[in-house]
């Protein structure tokens, strides 16, 4: 028996290419950060996995949101690569980078796994990663807002600090943590925030569960797979980078052949590749560790090359390891997660449709511009925040009685926003003021602290009605009008949803 490190040193290695720590993907920073390291996946996927350009050019292109891989298949390598590609922001020398945040600590309880809890934790991670001085100067820009709005604000702040956007990497997912991250994974609205990307790195054994529960229709999964050519390159590259500098000429070693007897070197390399196709690079490093260990057990000379005996015993150990990894699908677990999925969706219906908001304005044809402003500034913005906005000309059907429709909307809506402009005040619409009178009657049923009517001003105009003048209006001309509106809606809806009226 010979010393493993002495054998490696005698063959020109300064690092063990098959360390125990290397079982699970590329964890050696020296290998990841070497300037000559190639991409570990097909370059056709580099934009999705590394560059992230598609996500930040168009917020509605989700990119590769769910990345599945076997243990040791390369998830860690991709995560480290994303960090490496996006480190060091210098706008004067290099292109702006993405702020990469690891969301890998899932020690929180199941009760703390609601979407709001997830967003608050992510916000905490982002704020700690951003520039402290500039962050304190901008703290008012996100304090007191809803979690989703605060996340939007932090994306904007990161862009002001020179980043292209924010990428959240969700890792360390097992069956237990899968249940915890499910509310976050099911929330498709977050990936519509421009400049924000959330990627989930999930073990391949949970792929069947993912098919039953995750929104694959909207986010196509990426299964990390390796072809033979790429595996040979990665194997050769790892061996080359672990050699002494004078021996490492930046050229790939021909696989494992220089370490093995000539007559079996090709057979051993083929076995490496077969293991790699099944398990990824981590599996190859595991087999390499067994191979060197079995060789040093039976060898007597530090210069002796790996022979057939070591190969046979290493193969037996690898087979035993493979059998331990293969587990049948637990259909009881699938059924459990399907039920959990339905429960979360039910809660999402209640949560996502936070409140119905009646955006009431004149429907006179001469003020279409007002309608466009309300639609653009309020209707679409409220939709993006999961509210249910209502407008007369959008939520009625041809042939429907408008007065009856207004009665229905007043009855259904939890908030009433009468939208005033110079045109509205000059040319009074019967239907607009009919809706306003019904809303005023409904307001009288509520206690004074209940926010219900929110007068909304389009452009420069002043309210004339005495009762409305007692209520602070929402001015669309102000910069932060929408954040103020959401805060008012959240404050107004609490007593309604909690039956406190």
Which parts are unreliable, with pLDDT below 50 for 5 consecutive residues or more?
Answer: 23-63
Number of helices: 21
CATH fold description of the domain at 42-225: Rossmann fold
Largest sheet: 5 strands, parallel
The backbone outline, from C-alpha atoms, is elongated
Per CATH, the class of the domain at 42-225 reads Alpha Beta
Secondary structure tally: strands: 10
Tell me what the CATH architecture of the domain at 42-225 is: 3-Layer(aba) Sandwich
Q: β content, as a range?
A: 5-15%
The percentage helix is 40-55%
Order of the strands making up the biggest sheet: 2-3-4-1-5
How far from one another are the termini?
82 Å
Query: Structural class, judged by helices and strands?
Result: alpha/beta
Mean pLDDT: 77
Radius of gyration: 30 Å
Structure write-up:
- The chain is α/β, with parallel strands linked by helices and 501 residues long.
- Among the domains are: 42-225, Rossmann fold, CATH 3.40.50; 353-497, Toll/interleukin-1 receptor homology (TIR) domain (Rossmann fold), CATH 3.40.50.
- It has 21 helices and ten strands.
- Strands 2-3-4-1-5 form a five-stranded parallel β-sheet, sandwiched between helices. Strands 7-6-8-9-10 form a five-stranded parallel β-sheet, sandwiched between helices.
- Strand 6, helix 16 and strand 7 form a beta-alpha-beta unit.
- Helix 11 (228-241) crosses helix 12 (262-279) and helix 12 runs antiparallel to helix 13.
- The chain is elongated.
- The relative contact order is 0.10.
- The model is unreliable at 23-63 (pLDDT under 50).
